[in-house]
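Q: Here's a chain of 496 amino acids. Please give me its 3D structure as tokens.
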Amino acid sequence: MALFTPSTLTVQLAEHIRAAFSGLYVLTHEPDEALAEIRRLCIDERWNLATWDVLSGLSVASGPSTALGDPLAAVNALAGMAGPDETTLLVLRNFHRYVGGAEVIQALEQQLVLGQSLRTFVVILAPIVQLPVELEKRFVLLDHPLPTREQIQQIASQLVPIRDFPHGAELDRLLDAAAGLTRIEAENALALSLVRTDRLDPATLWELKAQALRKQGLLSLYRGGERLDELGGLTALKAFCLRALGSTRRAAGILPRGVLLLGVPGTGKSALAKALGQETGRPTVILDVGALMGSLVGQSEERTRAALRSIDALAPCVCVIDEVEKAFAGTGGAQDSGVTTRMFGTFLSWLSDHDSDVFVVCSANDISRLPPEFTRAERFDGTFFLDLPSPEQKAAIWQQYVTRFQLDPDQRRPSDDLWTGAEVRACGRLAALLDLPLVEAARHIVPVAATAAESVDRLRQWASGRCLSTEVAGFFSSQAAPASSRRRVARDSFRN
């Protein structure tokens, strides 16, 4: 069931054709939908349309189809379709598979030069951008956008009677679940939910969306059950994020950007990011920057743009990027011919310029590996430093994991002056796994604040006065003990 709704693609095509751009490259995963929009545009503008694919050959709207499966012959045929005071479009489907040959490159180059005077235009429909260097400057790249919420609602309305159609908050949940799917993916997911539950169920759409993201290989959809109240402390950080995400100013176009979380490993940066989506009812999307790297020239940059487009399409959502300083560690180096630098530049531009309701949570353990432009204003709403938890916070964390791992709540706790929340959890898990008292299990824990004491101290000193506190409003202030004292406490903890 096709839905032909005009989109940004129609407007872009009309503008570029009137401006005599003879080469148009449309990036789309829905060639049938894109072709339907082009066909409607040609009817409205009274332009001639010809289409080609390797199975059907060349098809001219005003004439019979020909079994012309040769891509070179299809390109050469365009000049013969020109007419006085007429505009002709030749749409080549999946032509990126055939544009690498020397003869096809030469024919396209010649046709694109003639097309400006003959009013003949080559339109390539393909899911990836793959052009030889000879033609890169000859084509302009256009995006075929994913369906809007209104278009998805139209698709859904064709599947169920009006009396059974969801409304209000239920409809919003359904549209949130369908955001980021192609038209056919959305229609299939909606149909499957009707078969499974006899209604339009967002859970089915989330399931298929997670599968679609896994196939793409760039993003993953996190659907865990963490809650913010399970994280001890971080009072100011939690309040800041919840207030930003719960703001009523979205209607005025004032959207939250996100937060950068700097801190000691194991202090809950990733856990907070994942719990934030669950707490606010938003999907949590995890971007693995390493998965964006490709072996072909330009592939990494294109994957980065594709991932960011998908994230925008999934809005409203929470986007999590863990250990961002490692993800862009090659920025500014020559070991990868500048690929990491270009990817980083694309990501920085998106952080500042995106107008989608995406709350970005980046975590980092070493701020010195990030360039200064990463933390400038309008990239993030705030940069927070997560220090070792206080004794009160650790008491709450101990209680949580003693309960979770079904341990004796009255037993003695080990010395935990240098421990993070992750180390408290590890001690509880080992105590349950090895059937040991907590004090004995603690002998297997080496806190990162002891093994990397100098690094942790430098991190605290850097954050003091530069980062916001996670506990109280205002800047973080370093209260670190001298290094020798910390090492002494660490040794004492091993003897318990």
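Q: Can you summarize the key feature?
A: Residues 319 and 360 are 5 Å apart (CA to CA).
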